[in-house]
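Good morning,

Both structures are done.
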Amino acid sequence: MQKQIIECVPNISEGRDEAKIKAIASVVETVEGVKLLDIDPGKATNRTVITFVGEPKPVIEAAFRLIKKASELIDMSKHSGEHPRFGATDVCPLIPISNISMDEIIPYAHELGNRVGNELGIPGYFYESAATQPKRKNLATVRAGEYEKLNEKLVNPDWKPDFGPAEFVKAKTSGVTAIGVRDFLVAYNINLNTTSTRRANAIAFDMREAGRVKRKGDPITGEIENDKDGNPIRIPGKLKAVKGIGWYIEEYGIAQISYNLTDIKITSIHKAFDETLIAAQERGIRVTGSELVGLVPLKAMLDAGKYFLNKQNRSLGVSEDEIIKIAVKSLGLDDLKPFNPKEKIIEYMMEDSSSSPLINLTLTNFAKETAGESPAPGGGSIAAYVGTLGVALGTMVANLSSHKRGWDDKWEYFSDWAEKGQVYKNQLLKLVDEDTNSFNAIMDSFRLPKDNEAQIIARKEAIQKATKYATEIPLKVMQTAFDSMEVMAEMANYGMKSSITDVGVGALCARTAVEGAYLNVRVNANSITDQNFKTDILAKAEDISKKALAKEKEIITVVNSKL
């Protein structure tokens, strides 16, 4: 069964004292199974965003320890900062990452809140999907009045805490904590060439979904217009699923628009950036760049990079690193300080390099590892890597063709083929390590104990299971390498003639990958006792081998005709 992974992103009300921040964040790492991903302090906001992930139970324990430590080290009666806040651990949202829904996380949020209230005596509220009342779903509503109004709020029957005592005694120093369950939120600030908070706010009100209150005459100072029920009329902003305010950041000497993008499927980072740029220009203000607070999903960065490449009529089928580089430069994410994708993209922070030891080696070290005394990596991994190089060549030709002079009307066609090539390349790269892992699984099964009949039976079953898997992996290499030949075939017929030999080499590599993997299918199948499985997989492998040979001849014929 796949692990359920959740993310916790507590925001603590300390962004200046490095020792305190480190002491609070470090308690997360005292819980086994929890990985601390990011610590992002802000001096002007006097607030730090901490990000960690793991399975639900360990994450809840880590969150509890963090809230406890923050309450011991942060005195809210002495706190000031630009960001709205009402607690030492101001908010503590739980977010689904994999194999778990928001509904499944709600009980964990309630468990955490009850522990905080009962064991620490800290009052608080549940918000977003964890809210116990509809009016408490919105964090801004829950936090209204901030710390300074808590002595009145906590004794108000309408705002009785969801957990902890309804009194200000403990909250005088710790404040209160909001614990929620929400979808992934991106905290995103846009930098302006002005120091005016009022002008930054004006743009924020233009953009955010809640918009602004309608006024008579002057939109800032005019009399508020009410509806027939006496409620203020609002003019909605341009961007859905966006919250925003303007503020001045003394640390940088500029005003920013601070956004919470609550659903990046509705309003993406790049859309928020471009729409804000237009609104700022209309007010005579220039956007100089932007800033991501905390972590961001890989897809959000790839979508942004592809959006800006598309605007330039450039191929989208370039490497992941290049797409992210375009996103960083286009959004100006390195305007205020260096932006390191390896430290800001959540998938990169969660990567376990030990699961892909081969593809993380240099070419020289990969060759040395292969040439060593160990039987792995062997022919199967090399076959997968040769296939990777083959389709990489085909993808290169598609990218070169996409910006060939005089072919401007064809860039999208070649871009589509380059994107297909990248998919095949990534699949084959993963199979480089997967083939070695499958071989190691066979070796592990042979090391199982065989001291009695039950162990002997279990060992035989484990060996057969591992051997079947070790036969399926090279079959997958065969199929993927053969499928990738469609890229070389298309480029042979329609790509740049000056790169025709690259296409040919790519096709030769792909067919070599197929044949190399075929040898591994055959040798591993010899040890399989399940005759139906054995017959079926050998038939599939033979069919792919024949088709790959025919496809290679077809491509090389075209290549030779153009030399």
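Second structure follows.
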Amino acid sequence: MKPQRAGGHRLALVALCLALTDCGAGDSPDPAADAATDAATDAATSPAPSAVVSPAELDFSGLQRDVATTAEVTLANEGDAPLELRKIAVPKIPSLSVQLANQTHASGATAALDPPVVLAPNSTLVLGLTVTSTSAKGHSGPLRIWTNDLATPAGDGVVEVAVSLNKHLPCLTLEPNDTVGFGHVLVGTTATRTVTLKSCSHTKGVITALGLAGSPAFGLNQLPSPGGQPISKANPLVVLPTDTLELQVTCTPPSAQTDASGAPTPFVAKLQTEDNTEASGSALTLSCMGTATPCATAVIDSTQGNAIVPLDTLALSGKASFAPPKHKVAKWKWSVLAQPAGSDDHAFWPNDAAPEVQFGHKRITHQGKEVISVNVAGTYEFGLSVWDDSGVESCAAATRTVEVVPDKTLHVELTWDTPADTSKLDAAGADLDLHFAHPLASAAPICTDPPTMCGNKPCKCQSDGDKDGKADPWFHTPFDCFWFNANPNWADQSPAVADNPSLDLDDTDGWGPEVMTLNKPEANVTYRIGVFYWDDHDFGPSTARVRIYRAGTLQADVTSPSLKQCDMWWVKDLTWPTGALVNVGGKPGGVVTPGYTTKFTNAFGGNCSK
């Protein structure tokens, strides 16, 4: 594919020439026209940048599921003046990130590049685009970069790359995407739920079978059938990228069904499709409980399904809840039945009485944007009770379990408990910090007093705070990833290579979590994982907990002894590519160095510098 050329600087001169009364040879009788022509000529011949991006279109399709894939985009300056990259906007494609000049920009982000990234004439810059495909659902959008090349096609200095994920793969979704729960339905009456079938890509879906299997208590109305004939391989249903079909699924329980012990049991069936997608043959579970007592039925829906990744927003809806005939649902009440340790500051927003809620911790980003996200990995279970307009409560609360599963190769999570801090929802608390260090952080010699000089300045050195005769890895820039160095560039210096850790979440006011992720660990490297008690803010001792995940699976859950301000806890070492976790000093719980100080903590360490 040819590069997208940003444009030529001669166009302005041609346009100006055509606007003048005489573009031919000879003297002009109009001095002003002569001056304008001279100015245009000077502008056209003066040095100017010229932005060229390649490729102009980038499609991620046919990817291995749940494996990060990286592609490169080259931005060249073919002009004769420096090209400035001033702002970047990343398309809103799930899990997409763009690495530009040692900085990572996440999906949907728009960020000013301050100072601008500068490309010299006749030079290039490689951008790395990384994405992890978790489904066949298609997404697309433009990657935009603002420059000082005013000869781009729109004249605004913007160059674009059309980015897509699974654009050319057929994809169909059923919403809800896991279970249609009818709840308790009065025996002999019919409850109806709507299931939406739609395309989720830019390629048509072809359905060759659609029907119910299981209990005859269920029915399927408004079955789309081409030509009035049943859907089959000979008579398929074609779903275009713009199509949305609504299916009405019903349940008419013939009795209040019970098992051999007399316990109520639901009627169950499956809505199944056969089609041309990767997920062909998948089924949607239908569940319905017959009851002889009329009451409202609580229903919990989530378009995200039963699994999300950390730092996502968890949205729940109770609007599908329904009441007995001639009544309507008038009241909702949400509850948390189970949640992982460290997520105590998560709550329902706007409140636990709204029909639709978001669950998580509310924070304000550096850009001033309000974000509600689930920050701690693990299992969350929610309950919902509803009341009809006559005040009758639902026969039973609806429940829903959502798994928050890390999607990066390595995911390290720090939370902590401070007994003297009795409120987890205020903006005050102890400050502990997560550290993730490269072995090169310990390559420098141990610092001496007075310092060893290299030329006219002290040599690069590292502290030996634990007094083991070896340089420590902590507080090294750039080879220790922590709050001061949240996005280092390690190993391959190309930003297109995703071998760099990222501190995705930093917490300074108690309890955590702090989250570090790394998608492409280096081979034959042993990383160091530690926790430093930066400032207790007068709340006293804390107990830290570190959970280490590999490819979404929990590998270690380690709790520290009681830590005091300025203590350094060396938790584990992690070797790659084996993923083996090594006990520091042979101790499963790691090693704590009390009153740990370094040059960094002495300079910036708050109470630790006292």
